[in-house]
Design a protein that fits this description.
The protein is an alpha/beta fold. It has 2 domains: about 140 residues, 3-Layer(aba) Sandwich (Rossmann fold); about 120 residues, 2-Layer Sandwich (Dihydrodipicolinate Reductase, domain 2). A hairpin with a 4-residue loop joins strand 9 and strand 10. The longest helix has 23 residues. It starts with a strand and ends with a helix. The chain binds NADP nicotinamide-adenine-dinucleotide phosphate. The site of NADP nicotinamide-adenine-dinucleotide phosphate has 31 residues, from helix 1, strand 2 and helix 3.
Length: about 280
Protein backbone atom coordinates (compact mmCIF):
# COMPACT_ATOMS: atom_id res chain seq x y z
CA UNK A 1 0.00 0.00 0.00
CA UNK A 2 1.14 3.53 -0.76
CA UNK A 3 2.09 5.43 2.39
CA UNK A 4 0.01 8.57 2.05
CA UNK A 5 -0.25 11.92 3.79
CA UNK A 6 -3.23 14.24 3.35
CA UNK A 7 -2.65 17.96 3.73
CA UNK A 8 -5.83 19.85 4.64
CA UNK A 9 -8.96 18.37 6.09
CA UNK A 10 -11.46 21.04 5.24
CA UNK A 11 -14.42 20.51 2.88
CA UNK A 12 -12.44 18.94 0.04
CA UNK A 13 -9.80 17.15 2.16
CA UNK A 14 -12.49 15.42 4.26
CA UNK A 15 -14.12 13.85 1.20
CA UNK A 16 -10.71 12.73 -0.05
CA UNK A 17 -9.81 11.29 3.38
CA UNK A 18 -12.93 9.09 3.37
CA UNK A 19 -12.13 7.87 -0.13
CA UNK A 20 -8.53 6.99 0.83
CA UNK A 21 -9.65 5.21 4.00
CA UNK A 22 -11.91 3.01 1.87
CA UNK A 23 -9.23 2.16 -0.69
CA UNK A 24 -6.97 -0.91 -0.71
CA UNK A 25 -4.21 0.89 -2.57
CA UNK A 26 -3.48 3.74 -0.15
CA UNK A 27 -2.54 3.72 3.50
CA UNK A 28 -3.52 7.03 5.12
CA UNK A 29 -0.75 7.60 7.68
CA UNK A 30 -1.15 11.32 8.39
CA UNK A 31 -3.73 14.05 8.13
CA UNK A 32 -2.21 17.51 8.47
CA UNK A 33 -4.01 20.78 9.24
CA UNK A 34 -2.84 24.33 9.77
CA UNK A 35 -0.50 25.25 12.62
CA UNK A 36 -2.50 26.00 15.78
CA UNK A 37 -5.60 24.28 14.43
CA UNK A 38 -8.12 23.09 17.01
CA UNK A 39 -8.21 19.80 15.14
CA UNK A 40 -4.59 19.04 16.17
CA UNK A 41 -4.40 15.90 18.32
CA UNK A 42 -8.05 14.93 17.75
CA UNK A 43 -8.99 11.69 15.95
CA UNK A 44 -10.26 11.87 12.39
CA UNK A 45 -13.32 9.84 13.42
CA UNK A 46 -14.60 13.06 15.07
CA UNK A 47 -15.00 14.59 11.61
CA UNK A 48 -15.46 11.71 9.19
CA UNK A 49 -17.63 8.70 8.65
CA UNK A 50 -14.93 6.28 9.91
CA UNK A 51 -13.92 4.43 13.05
CA UNK A 52 -10.21 5.26 12.49
CA UNK A 53 -8.41 6.64 15.56
CA UNK A 54 -5.71 8.35 13.44
CA UNK A 55 -4.83 11.62 15.17
CA UNK A 56 -4.70 14.84 13.15
CA UNK A 57 -1.36 16.64 13.21
CA UNK A 58 -0.48 20.12 12.05
CA UNK A 59 2.04 21.51 9.58
CA UNK A 60 4.51 22.45 12.33
CA UNK A 61 5.34 18.76 12.78
CA UNK A 62 5.30 17.84 9.08
CA UNK A 63 9.04 17.13 8.77
CA UNK A 64 9.06 14.94 11.90
CA UNK A 65 5.94 13.16 10.74
CA UNK A 66 7.46 12.53 7.30
CA UNK A 67 10.69 11.14 8.79
CA UNK A 68 8.78 8.84 11.12
CA UNK A 69 6.18 7.55 8.70
CA UNK A 70 8.17 7.68 5.44
CA UNK A 71 5.39 8.95 3.20
CA UNK A 72 5.58 8.07 -0.48
CA UNK A 73 2.81 10.40 -1.54
CA UNK A 74 1.03 13.53 -0.32
CA UNK A 75 -2.32 14.91 -1.48
CA UNK A 76 -2.84 18.61 -0.89
CA UNK A 77 -6.12 20.53 -0.46
CA UNK A 78 -5.08 23.60 1.51
CA UNK A 79 -4.19 27.12 0.30
CA UNK A 80 -1.48 28.23 -2.18
CA UNK A 81 0.58 29.74 0.67
CA UNK A 82 0.33 26.54 2.72
CA UNK A 83 1.21 24.39 -0.30
CA UNK A 84 4.29 26.45 -1.05
CA UNK A 85 5.44 26.08 2.54
CA UNK A 86 4.70 22.36 2.93
CA UNK A 87 5.44 20.98 -0.55
CA UNK A 88 9.22 21.77 -0.50
CA UNK A 89 9.58 19.97 2.86
CA UNK A 90 7.98 16.86 1.37
CA UNK A 91 9.69 17.11 -2.03
CA UNK A 92 13.07 17.26 -0.28
CA UNK A 93 12.28 13.83 1.17
CA UNK A 94 11.31 12.47 -2.25
CA UNK A 95 7.55 12.47 -1.57
CA UNK A 96 5.42 12.60 -4.73
CA UNK A 97 2.62 15.15 -4.77
CA UNK A 98 -0.95 15.60 -5.98
CA UNK A 99 -1.88 19.27 -5.70
CA UNK A 100 -5.63 19.87 -5.72
CA UNK A 101 -5.35 23.33 -4.17
CA UNK A 102 -6.46 26.21 -6.41
CA UNK A 103 -5.48 29.81 -6.93
CA UNK A 104 -1.72 29.75 -7.63
CA UNK A 105 -0.22 32.76 -9.43
CA UNK A 106 2.06 32.05 -12.40
CA UNK A 107 5.04 32.76 -10.17
CA UNK A 108 3.82 30.29 -7.53
CA UNK A 109 3.17 27.68 -10.21
CA UNK A 110 6.77 28.16 -11.38
CA UNK A 111 7.91 27.39 -7.83
CA UNK A 112 5.99 24.10 -7.92
CA UNK A 113 7.59 23.23 -11.27
CA UNK A 114 11.02 24.01 -9.80
CA UNK A 115 10.39 21.50 -7.00
CA UNK A 116 9.93 18.78 -9.60
CA UNK A 117 13.24 19.72 -11.25
CA UNK A 118 15.20 20.20 -8.05
CA UNK A 119 14.09 17.05 -6.24
CA UNK A 120 13.19 14.82 -9.21
CA UNK A 121 9.77 13.97 -7.86
CA UNK A 122 6.43 13.36 -9.57
CA UNK A 123 3.73 16.02 -9.21
CA UNK A 124 0.20 16.22 -10.57
CA UNK A 125 -1.11 19.77 -10.62
CA UNK A 126 -4.89 19.45 -10.87
CA UNK A 127 -6.95 22.61 -10.27
CA UNK A 128 -9.95 20.58 -11.44
CA UNK A 129 -9.89 16.93 -10.44
CA UNK A 130 -13.38 16.05 -11.65
CA UNK A 131 -12.93 13.33 -14.26
CA UNK A 132 -16.11 14.29 -16.14
CA UNK A 133 -15.15 17.95 -16.42
CA UNK A 134 -11.78 16.99 -17.88
CA UNK A 135 -13.56 14.74 -20.38
CA UNK A 136 -15.95 17.56 -21.27
CA UNK A 137 -12.99 19.86 -21.91
CA UNK A 138 -11.38 17.30 -24.18
CA UNK A 139 -14.60 16.52 -26.11
CA UNK A 140 -15.39 20.21 -26.53
CA UNK A 141 -11.92 20.88 -27.94
CA UNK A 142 -12.37 18.02 -30.40
CA UNK A 143 -15.72 19.43 -31.57
CA UNK A 144 -14.28 22.94 -31.84
CA UNK A 145 -11.52 21.66 -34.12
CA UNK A 146 -13.97 19.83 -36.38
CA UNK A 147 -16.56 22.61 -36.63
CA UNK A 148 -14.70 25.81 -35.82
CA UNK A 149 -17.30 28.01 -37.54
CA UNK A 150 -20.13 27.10 -35.13
CA UNK A 151 -21.05 29.66 -32.50
CA UNK A 152 -20.27 28.58 -28.94
CA UNK A 153 -22.24 29.40 -25.82
CA UNK A 154 -21.08 28.24 -22.38
CA UNK A 155 -23.43 28.20 -19.39
CA UNK A 156 -22.30 27.51 -15.86
CA UNK A 157 -24.73 27.03 -12.96
CA UNK A 158 -23.36 27.17 -9.45
CA UNK A 159 -24.75 26.99 -5.96
CA UNK A 160 -23.68 30.29 -4.33
CA UNK A 161 -22.94 28.51 -1.03
CA UNK A 162 -20.93 25.75 -2.72
CA UNK A 163 -17.26 26.61 -2.34
CA UNK A 164 -16.18 23.33 -3.96
CA UNK A 165 -17.35 24.62 -7.34
CA UNK A 166 -15.07 26.06 -9.98
CA UNK A 167 -15.95 29.38 -11.50
CA UNK A 168 -12.69 29.06 -13.48
CA UNK A 169 -13.98 26.09 -15.49
CA UNK A 170 -16.14 28.16 -17.89
CA UNK A 171 -13.21 30.51 -18.48
CA UNK A 172 -10.92 27.56 -19.21
CA UNK A 173 -13.43 26.12 -21.73
CA UNK A 174 -13.82 29.53 -23.40
CA UNK A 175 -10.04 30.09 -23.55
CA UNK A 176 -9.39 26.65 -25.07
CA UNK A 177 -12.06 27.16 -27.74
CA UNK A 178 -10.80 30.65 -28.59
CA UNK A 179 -7.25 29.30 -29.05
CA UNK A 180 -8.53 26.59 -31.41
CA UNK A 181 -10.71 29.00 -33.42
CA UNK A 182 -7.81 31.41 -33.75
CA UNK A 183 -5.39 28.66 -34.85
CA UNK A 184 -7.84 27.30 -37.43
CA UNK A 185 -8.55 30.81 -38.74
CA UNK A 186 -4.84 31.55 -39.18
CA UNK A 187 -4.34 28.21 -40.90
CA UNK A 188 -7.15 28.91 -43.35
CA UNK A 189 -5.97 32.44 -44.10
CA UNK A 190 -2.54 31.04 -44.75
CA UNK A 191 -4.15 28.66 -47.26
CA UNK A 192 -6.07 31.45 -48.98
CA UNK A 193 -9.57 31.18 -47.43
CA UNK A 194 -11.41 34.41 -46.84
CA UNK A 195 -14.29 33.19 -44.63
CA UNK A 196 -14.46 34.68 -41.17
CA UNK A 197 -14.80 31.73 -38.86
CA UNK A 198 -13.86 33.59 -35.72
CA UNK A 199 -17.16 33.87 -33.82
CA UNK A 200 -17.55 35.14 -30.34
CA UNK A 201 -17.56 32.59 -27.54
CA UNK A 202 -20.05 33.76 -24.94
CA UNK A 203 -20.54 32.43 -21.42
CA UNK A 204 -22.80 33.12 -18.46
CA UNK A 205 -23.13 31.96 -14.86
CA UNK A 206 -26.51 31.19 -13.34
CA UNK A 207 -27.21 30.72 -9.61
CA UNK A 208 -28.69 27.34 -8.69
CA UNK A 209 -29.87 25.80 -5.44
CA UNK A 210 -29.34 22.31 -6.88
CA UNK A 211 -26.21 20.60 -8.21
CA UNK A 212 -24.10 22.76 -10.46
CA UNK A 213 -23.56 22.10 -14.16
CA UNK A 214 -21.50 23.22 -17.14
CA UNK A 215 -23.08 23.24 -20.56
CA UNK A 216 -21.46 23.97 -23.90
CA UNK A 217 -23.69 24.54 -26.93
CA UNK A 218 -22.38 24.66 -30.51
CA UNK A 219 -24.82 26.30 -32.91
CA UNK A 220 -24.50 26.00 -36.69
CA UNK A 221 -26.85 27.22 -39.40
CA UNK A 222 -29.08 24.17 -39.22
CA UNK A 223 -28.15 22.22 -36.10
CA UNK A 224 -27.10 22.40 -32.45
CA UNK A 225 -24.91 20.20 -30.25
CA UNK A 226 -25.00 20.40 -26.45
CA UNK A 227 -22.52 18.81 -24.04
CA UNK A 228 -23.53 18.86 -20.38
CA UNK A 229 -21.68 17.93 -17.20
CA UNK A 230 -23.56 17.88 -13.92
CA UNK A 231 -21.85 17.32 -10.60
CA UNK A 232 -23.94 15.18 -8.27
CA UNK A 233 -21.54 14.92 -5.35
CA UNK A 234 -18.29 16.39 -4.01
CA UNK A 235 -16.92 12.83 -4.24
CA UNK A 236 -16.04 13.57 -7.89
CA UNK A 237 -12.95 15.44 -6.67
CA UNK A 238 -11.93 12.59 -4.40
CA UNK A 239 -12.23 10.06 -7.24
CA UNK A 240 -10.01 12.30 -9.40
CA UNK A 241 -7.48 12.68 -6.59
CA UNK A 242 -7.23 8.90 -6.20
CA UNK A 243 -6.70 8.45 -9.95
CA UNK A 244 -4.01 11.16 -9.94
CA UNK A 245 -2.30 9.59 -6.92
CA UNK A 246 -2.24 6.13 -8.50
CA UNK A 247 -0.83 7.66 -11.72
CA UNK A 248 2.00 9.63 -10.10
CA UNK A 249 3.26 7.12 -7.54
CA UNK A 250 6.03 5.75 -9.81
CA UNK A 251 6.55 8.69 -12.17
CA UNK A 252 8.81 11.72 -12.13
CA UNK A 253 7.89 15.05 -13.69
CA UNK A 254 5.14 17.66 -13.73
CA UNK A 255 1.75 16.44 -14.96
CA UNK A 256 -1.81 17.64 -15.40
CA UNK A 257 -5.14 15.83 -15.10
CA UNK A 258 -5.16 15.52 -18.91
CA UNK A 259 -2.07 13.31 -18.58
CA UNK A 260 -3.66 11.19 -15.83
CA UNK A 261 -6.70 10.51 -18.03
CA UNK A 262 -4.60 10.07 -21.21
CA UNK A 263 -6.50 12.99 -22.74
CA UNK A 264 -3.36 14.94 -23.60
CA UNK A 265 -2.18 12.08 -25.79
CA UNK A 266 -5.58 11.76 -27.50
CA UNK A 267 -5.67 15.50 -28.04
CA UNK A 268 -2.19 15.52 -29.63
CA UNK A 269 -3.05 12.68 -32.00
CA UNK A 270 -6.32 14.34 -32.92
CA UNK A 271 -4.61 17.71 -33.50
CA UNK A 272 -2.22 16.07 -35.96
CA UNK A 273 -5.12 14.26 -37.67
CA UNK A 274 -7.23 17.42 -38.05
CA UNK A 275 -4.25 19.39 -39.37
CA UNK A 276 -3.87 16.76 -42.08
CA UNK A 277 -7.63 16.85 -42.70
CA UNK A 278 -7.63 20.62 -43.24
CA UNK A 279 -4.63 20.37 -45.57
CA UNK A 280 -6.42 17.67 -47.60
CA UNK A 281 -9.60 19.77 -47.76
CA UNK A 282 -7.70 22.68 -49.15
N1 LIG B 1 -8.80 20.42 -7.62
C1 LIG B 1 -10.09 20.31 -7.38
O1 LIG B 1 -10.84 19.68 -8.13
C2 LIG B 1 -10.63 20.96 -6.14
C3 LIG B 1 -11.86 20.57 -5.61
C4 LIG B 1 -12.28 21.17 -4.44
C5 LIG B 1 -11.49 22.12 -3.81
N2 LIG B 1 -10.29 22.47 -4.36
C6 LIG B 1 -9.38 23.43 -3.71
O2 LIG B 1 -8.82 22.83 -2.54
C7 LIG B 1 -8.48 23.85 -1.60
C8 LIG B 1 -9.14 23.56 -0.26
O3 LIG B 1 -10.54 23.68 -0.41
P1 LIG B 1 -11.55 23.45 0.81
O4 LIG B 1 -12.88 23.80 0.30
O5 LIG B 1 -11.32 22.12 1.41
O6 LIG B 1 -11.02 24.58 1.85
P2 LIG B 1 -11.19 24.59 3.44
O7 LIG B 1 -12.45 23.91 3.82
O8 LIG B 1 -10.98 26.01 3.86
O9 LIG B 1 -9.97 23.67 3.96
C9 LIG B 1 -8.64 24.11 3.92
C10 LIG B 1 -7.82 23.16 4.75
O10 LIG B 1 -6.45 23.56 4.64
C11 LIG B 1 -5.88 23.49 5.96
N3 LIG B 1 -4.72 24.39 6.03
C12 LIG B 1 -4.70 25.75 5.98
N4 LIG B 1 -3.42 26.18 6.12
C13 LIG B 1 -2.63 25.07 6.26
C14 LIG B 1 -1.25 24.86 6.46
N5 LIG B 1 -0.39 25.89 6.54
N6 LIG B 1 -0.81 23.59 6.52
C15 LIG B 1 -1.65 22.53 6.47
N7 LIG B 1 -2.98 22.68 6.30
C16 LIG B 1 -3.46 23.93 6.21
C17 LIG B 1 -7.01 23.90 6.88
O11 LIG B 1 -6.71 23.46 8.18
P3 LIG B 1 -7.75 23.64 9.41
O12 LIG B 1 -8.74 22.51 9.23
O13 LIG B 1 -6.92 23.51 10.59
O14 LIG B 1 -8.37 25.00 9.23
C18 LIG B 1 -8.18 23.15 6.24
O15 LIG B 1 -8.24 21.83 6.70
C19 LIG B 1 -8.94 25.18 -2.24
O16 LIG B 1 -7.87 25.76 -2.91
C20 LIG B 1 -10.02 24.72 -3.23
O17 LIG B 1 -10.21 25.62 -4.30
C21 LIG B 1 -9.86 21.89 -5.51
Amino acid sequence: MIKTCLLGMGKAGSVVAEKILNSYEFDLLSVVCKPGSQKTGTPIKNYLNTDSNLLITNADSLVEECKRKRFQLAIDFTTPEATLKNAPLLAEKGVHLVIGTNGFSNHQLRQLKDLVQDYRIGLVYAPNLAVGINLLLSIVKTIARLIPNYQVEITEAENPSETLSHSGTAIKIADDIKIIKEAVRKNRYKLGHREDISKIVSFSTLPTEKNGFHKVRFTGESEEIEILHRSNSAAIYAEGAIKAAAFIQNLKGFYHMEDVLLLERMDRDFRLATNRLYLNFN
